[in-house]
Amino acid sequence: MSSALFEAFLAKIYVDAKARTKFLADPLGEAQRAGLSPEEALDLQNIDWVGLKLASRSFEKKRLRHARGKFRFLRLFGRQ
Amino acid sequence: MDRFGIGWRPELAAGILSNLHDIDVVEVIAEDYLSVPQSKMRALRTLSKQVPVVVHGVSLGMASSVPVETKRLDKLARLVEELRPEAWSEHLAFVRGGGHEIGHLAAPPRTASTIEGAAKNLTSARQIVGALPAVENIASLIDPPGSRYDEPAWISEILSLSGTELLLDLHNVYTNAVNFGFDPFDFLARIPWNQVTMIHIAGGEWITSDSSCGTRRMLDDHLHDVPVPVYDLLRAAGTRAPRPLTVILERDGLYPPIQTLLVQLQTARNALAEGRALQPRHQGVV
Questions:
Q1: Domain segments of chain A as ranges
Q2: Strand, coil or helix: what is A10?
Q3: Which of A58, B43, B106, B217 has the most crowded Cβ, counting Cβ within 10 A?
Q4: Which residues of A have a CB under 8 Å from any CB of B?
C-alpha cells in the first residue's frame, strides 16, 4: 500500500487537468488502468473530492507563479 | 532559552537587519542558495555572523516511498558545509511522483510505506548532509488519500524510527484541524514533545470551492497575520515543551511594515512565556 505508483498517480491527478477529469469521471477504472491494486483503487474512489479540487487549484496557482518568476521558490521544484 | 525569529526574505531584509536587537535567529530557504553567485553566498555568510541562521528546505520530498535523489542532497550538503547553520529542516511532504512536479508541498498517504520511506530518506540525508534535518508537519487542503494513520500517529512513528526532531508548524496544525475536523489541542497532546525544538507560526485565509455548495477550507498561504488560535496553540506548546524552542514567524508576501511583524513576534513571546509559566518544572527553560 502507498506504493511509488500510488504517489505517482496522485501527483498526476494533482497537476494534470485532463488526467483529473478522466479520473473524476471513472475513478476505479482509471486507477485500475494505472496498475494500482484493488485496495488503492478503492482509496481513490473514496478520495476527498472537495480537497482534490481545492488542492489541485492551489498547486496550479503555485506553479503559475513559478513560471512567471514571481514566486520566491522559482528554482525549488523541477529538475535542478 | 526560547528564541524568536523571522524567515529571511529579500523584501524583509532591511527591516530585519535594522531590528536585530529584537530578532534572535533568522531562517533562510535552502533552495534560494543552492545555485547562487559567490557574492550572494558571501552576503549570507555575513548575515550568519550577525545573527544565528537556520536553513529550511522545501523541495526534497522527504515523506515519500520514493528515495530522495542524491544530487538534491549533495546540493544541500554543499550549502550546509559552506554556511554551517545551527540546524536544518525539511517537510514531511512529497513534491513529485512519476515525473510530475507538483510545485508545492503535498501531504503523502499516511501509511507504513511512507513512514519507512521517510525514515530511509532521513538516514540518507544524515549520511550525505552530515546532520539530520528536523522535520516539519505540513498543511493540506486534501485529506491525503490512502492514509492508514492519523497525523499525530504518523508523525510520531517517523520521529521514533528516525530519531530526528520535529519542527512543529502551529498554523499547519490549526489549518488541518479546521479543514478536517479534529481538535488541535488533542494533536498537541499526542506528539513526542521531547523531540520538538522548533516552531513555525504564520497566517492563511479561507478559500471556497466553486462547487460542493461553497465548502470552504483554510489555505496556509503565509500572506496573512498570525491568527489568535495559533497563539493559543503556542501557549499550549509552552505548557508541554521540555526543551528550549526556536519560534520562527513565516511571511511570504503581502508584506506589512516590519513593525507589524515585530508586534506578532512579541505576541508570540508573550504567549509562549505564559505557557511556560504554567510549567513550573521547566521554568528554567524560558
A1: 4-68
A2: helix
A3: B106
A4: 1-12, 14-16, 40, 43-44, 46-55, 58-60, 62-63, 66, 72-73, 75-78, 80
B218: closest chain A residue by CA: A54
Domain boundaries defined on chain B: 3-276
Residue B155: name the closest of B106, B89, B88, B110 by CA.
B110
Q: Is there a contact between A11 and B111 if contact means CB atoms under 8 Å apart?
A: no
- CB B240 within 8 Å of CB B181: no
Which residue from B72, B101, B145 is facing A44, i.e. has the nearest CB?
Answer: B145
pLDDT in tens, B137-196: 999 999 999 999 999 999 999 999 999 999 999 999 999 999 999 999 999 999 999 999
The CATH topology of domain B3-276 is TIM Barrel (3.20.20)
Report pLDDT digits (tens) over B19-55: 999 999 999 999 999 989 999 999 999 999 999 999 9
A77/B112 touch (CB, cutoff 8 Å), yes or no: no
Sign (positive/negative) of CA torsion B74, B79, B84, B87?
A: negative
The H or E element containing residue B80 is helix B70-83
Cα–Cα distance measured from residue B91 to residue B133, given in angstroms and rounded to the nearest whole number: 9
The whole-number average pLDDT for the span B112-129 is: 98
CA–CA distance, A42 with B145 (Å, rounded to integer): 10
Q: With an 8 Å Cβ cutoff, are B34 and A75 in contact? A: yes
Instruction: Tell me what pLDDT residue A69 has.
Output: 61
Task: Say if residues B55 and B30 touch (Cβ distance below 8 Å).
Answer: yes
Q: What phi and psi values does residue B262 have, to the nearest 5 degrees? A: -65, -35
